[in-house]
């Protein structure tokens, strides 16, 4: 799209590494097995930026109809023209931000230069504390459709790394390159297997069905 611009580093990290081919192949395989599924793409921090680019890629280049996105602590990835273009193709997007999380404030947004500055796409949901002391509680504020609601996370200083690491009382910091606290939640254990390379495979069905399915697929590949 003319005049749409994105951050080179985020674009390169998704489009010029093995990440893209791995995700696209996985989605195609899932659709072949289970039909026309709803695809939900999740990501935290830089992973949120790449999740957004992935969702747009699936919609524009791979004809995946129903793609939803939820990111946590995502940075800005493009200008206002890109944000509008993205929203046109992936309207079912939720960007969760938390209190004073520093990352959603980066790269900076300059409201006086709307055509040249980075610009978030909607829809932001800002998690923040209300009340005091023992009466404090968390509020989920659904922000406006501009992507840069001045009454949401933009209303506070983005100066906290701790707020970036914890969302919904879950520490999202990975202990190693192949660990993911969301995927490895104990409640999901029976739906997943891990191969020798540390890749996590999830199924709609309990793990026994997933193992059976993998065996059948391997047999089919060997026959071909």
How would you explain this protein's 3D organization?
With 224 residues, this protein is α/β, with parallel strands linked by helices. The protein has 2 domains: 8-173, Alpha/Beta hydrolase fold, catalytic domain (Rossmann fold, 3-Layer(aba) Sandwich); 177-224, no CATH class. It is 32% helix and 18% strand. The chain contains 6 helices and 9 strands. The protein has helices spanning 8-15, 18-34, 46-61, 80-89, 162-165, 207-223; strands at 39-44, 67-72, 93-98, 124-130, 137-142, 166-167, 170-171, 192-194, 200-202. The chain has a 5-stranded mixed sheet with strand order 1-2-3-4-5, covered by helices on one side. β8 (192-194) and β9 form a beta hairpin. The chain is globular and about 50 Å long. The termini are far apart. 26% of the residues are buried.
| SSE order | HHEHEHEEEHEEEEH
Strand order of the largest sheet: 1-2-3-4-5
The CATH architecture of the largest domain can be named as: 3-Layer(aba) Sandwich
CATH superfamily of the largest domain: Alpha/Beta hydrolase fold, catalytic domain
Instruction: Tell how many strands the DSSP assignment holds.
Output: 9
Look at the structure and give the mean pLDDT: 84
Could you estimate the helical fraction of the residues in percent? 25-40%
CA gyration radius, whole angstroms: 19 Å
CATH uppermost class of the largest domain: Alpha Beta
Described by strand count, sense and barrel closure, the largest sheet is: 5 strands, mixed
Shape estimate: globular
Annotation field: number of helices: 6
CATH topology of the largest domain: Rossmann fold
Structural class of the secondary structure composition?
A: alpha/beta
């Amino acid at each position: 799209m003319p005049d749409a611009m994105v951050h080179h580093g985020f674009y390169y990290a998704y489009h010029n590494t093995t990440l893209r081919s791995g995700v696209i192949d996985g989605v195609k395989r899932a659709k072949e097995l289970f039909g026309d599924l709803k695809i939900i793409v999740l990501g935290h921090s830089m992973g949120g930026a790449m999740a957004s680019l992935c969702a747009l890629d699936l919609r524009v280049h791979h004809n995946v109809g129903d793609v939803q996105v939820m990111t946590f602590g995502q940075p800005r990835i493009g200008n206002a023209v890109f944000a509008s273009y993205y929203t046109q193709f992936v309207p079912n997007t939720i960007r969760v931000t938390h209190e004073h999380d520093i990352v959603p404030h980066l790269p900076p947004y300059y409201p006086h230069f709307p055509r040249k500055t980075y610009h978030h796409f909607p829809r932001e949901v800002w998690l923040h504390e209300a009340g005091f002391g023992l009466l404090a509680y968390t509020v989920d504020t659904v922000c406006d459709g501009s992507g840069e609601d001045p009454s949401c996370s933009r209303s506070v200083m983005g100066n906290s790394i701790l707020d970036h690491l914890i969302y919904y009382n879950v520490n999202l910091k990975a202990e190693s390159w192949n660990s993911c606290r969301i995927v490895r939640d104990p409640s999901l254990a029976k739906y997943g297997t891990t191969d020798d390379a540390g890749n996590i495979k999830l199924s709609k069905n309990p793990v026994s069905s997933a193992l059976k399915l993998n065996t059948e697929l391997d047999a089919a590949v060997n026959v071909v």
